[in-house]
Amino acid sequence: MPTLLDKIWRDHLVATDGQGQSILYADRHLVHEVTSPQAFSGLRAAGRRVRRPDLTFAVMDHVPPTDPGRARPLADQVAEAQLAALEKNCAEFGVRLLDMNHPDQGVVHVTMPELGLILPGLTVFCGDSHTATHGAFGALAFGVGTSQVEHILATGCLVQAKPKSLAVTVTGRLAPGVSAKDLALLIISRLGFGGGAGHIIEYRGPAITALSMEERMTICNMSVECGAKGGLIAPDQVTLDYLQGRRYAPAGDDWDRAVAAWQELVSDPDAVFDREVVIDASEARPMVTWGTNPAQSCAIGGRAADPAAIPDPADRADAIAALEYMGLAPGQPMEGLAVDCVFIGSCTNGRLSDLRAAAAVAAGRKVAEGVRALVVPGSGAVKAAAEAEGLDRVFTEAGFQWRMPGCSMCLAMNPDRLEPGQRSAATSNRNFQDRQGRGGRTHLVSPAMAAAAAITGRLTDVSRWEESHG
Amino acid sequence: MDKFTTYTALAAPLDVANVDTDQIVPKQFLKRVERRGFGQVLFYHWRFLEDGSPNPEFVLNQPRYQGAGVLIAGENFGSGSSREHAPWALADYGFKTIIAPSFADIFAGNCVSSGLLTVTLDPATVGRWMRRAQDQEGYAITVDLAAQTLTGSDGFSCAFDIEPFRKQQLLEGLDAIGLTLEHAAAIAAYEEAHRQPWQAAVAGPGGQEK
Ligand code: SF4
Q1: Which of A17, A176, A448, B62 has the fewest beta carbons closer than 10 A?
Q2: Which CATH entry fits the domain spanning B6-173: 3.40.50.410, 1.10.10.10, 3.20.19.10, 3.40.50.800?
Q3: Minimum distance, in Å, between the CA of residue B62 and any CA atom of chain A
């Protein structure tokens, strides 16, 4: 009766301390420039080495600029110092690094799965909350802090109390024109901003198994946005088809043996979860956030919250503050709201299928005057594949900027950012205050919705709009 | 890490729910490669106006809360990213304890590594502490981790729960890495037993991948 979480947990137990903490083995440790410098300094200060450099993979993704002419040293000296520190640390400790100019460089959570590094049943840790993405492969994956990054570097292990399990069963199927991103936003709105706290969510049910690997990554990626530690989807044929033949995936006999071992990776039929929630996918519509956390969302045809109608005082105060920050009136309709900027990219929606969905809307059309529209491929491989299909030309002919891979305007730690008061439609995962630039107002949407917003200059129901524009 | 000893400090009320890590430390300050100094930029966008001068409206800028060591906050404190800059900033500013109805998981775990105690209490009790810190100038709270109690300067008091491991780590200022390395034999045995090609070495150690 174990759940998938139970099985992976049990398989990685090195020891327990008798006080509820487990020492868990780390099969993959992903590293980026923002959360690692202090960890490597700690190692150096204590005279420690990296225990498993062969299982540690680093990439530069948060601070690199995304303009086509980008080059080191970066103009931003503090950002440059971070890249230089990562370079030096990786060289000194023998860690593989995808540097800014590497063909596979990109957002850590886009690049590492593409390389076949993320496999079912593994534990995957990274100093980044969206490590949750990798749960899409049936791997136990979650974000850790810098002290834990140092801990994993030094010991190959993470000390953790076991999270609780939450089954989110998604029945039915998504209506045409409704994407995995919309489903993720729906799930978060149902669970609430802190509703998943302390849990690993296992997504299951027909609407989940029907998703592609890239869509599953979008769903698991957003698990953290309801406070959960991570998401998990049992591996199946879709997973195997995605992995087979990738650079670091097992091959030949090893592949067959791996596939046989992975058959176990499913929650038993009588598994007991700490909590269970059922959501009907057919209720999902193209979604948009109106507030300043990802749970504050509605269908595009809907309205921003009316605080007067919110009974809980804390939620009401939250909604009032969010509306004020977002420059919205209570109950204001979301459709038709003018945007200044559109961002298509990030570890949520920066993969090839996302760019295809956006390009299908953009093809043969023009970005509305005055709208700045950025397309930032999630990785070098996504960029190359998109260019091979001619998506870059679709975007540039429509007036979008076609940029280099990186986190970009997802969190604006590089030059891509909003000006105070600017409103954006973004395919990323967080609409927190100031995240895309101080005073910036972010509406989270799917790639197709973002592209439609760029074309019309307004938040637009892409499902209806597609019918009429045909 | 310093040992967490019983102490008494001024309490500051931050009556806001869902305070996220981007608000605790805006990301333009995350590019530093050191651990120290983040206290200067704690709650930057709330603490400082556009021109960089202190925002007199923000609660921590009020003279009566200078030197506060206990922060009382709303639910879901520390949501968002796993970046440890948030606890570093809170600790560097001078906070040693944060009281709230709930904390984001990763954040709460990160706090231990910075020697910060997170105390989770039911919302009504947090409300009582909050109102005292708002209404009574100079209101201080004594935090006794060993006894798991909070006691206010007016005698108001409550007990709190904490995971035994976290408590021990804070009280003894333990080096978590050193503790795990005591299990070196178990780690090596685990590695020995898990040598499937997809579990074990996936790449030789080797500097920059080209
Ligand atoms: S794309 Fe955004 S969410 Fe993803 S790793 Fe980068 S900054 Fe974090």
Answers
A1: A176
A2: 3.20.19.10
A3: 21
